[in-house]
Amino acid sequence: MYAVLFIAMAISGLTVAAGLYIYLMKDEAKARKVKKLVRFSVISYAVLVAAFLFFLVPGIASAASSANPASGMGFIAAALATGLATIGAGYAVGAVGSSALGAVSEDPNILGKTLIFVGLAEGIAIYGLIVSIMILGRL
User: Fold this and answer.
1) What pLDDT digit, counting tens, does each position of 91-115 carry?
2) Considering just the CA atoms, what is the radius of gyration of the chain in Å?
3) In the chain, what is the greatest distance between 2 CA atoms, to the nearest angstrom?
4) Where does the V-ATPase proteolipid subunit C-like domain start and stop, copy by copy (predicted)?
């Protein structure tokens, strides 16, 4: 694992050095060659990180897992409940908030009513959080 970290740090250092060289170099022809090196180093870094995640992390994560194999699905369900509810709340607040802003610009007396609608849209995220807490409580 330390070898992978050393290789990743070497690639990162090479990429930063190439970026500084491009920044300080005024010749465009030489800079193109260095840009190819930067592209290669970024791609090799991505491949190295992907290999690290696919091959080394599952072995480490399985050693730390609990005895109940179904708890993993519960964690995924809790994460999905919170994440999807948050996405829905963000979309709802965006749509309702922009409409409320337009309505308030025409009639400033309805500001209180529009805040209620925006608050209702934000409640979707709270419902998702409550559902995920209930799921985590049963694990």
Assistant:
1) 999 999 999 999 999 999 999 989 9
2) 25
3) 66
4) 76-135
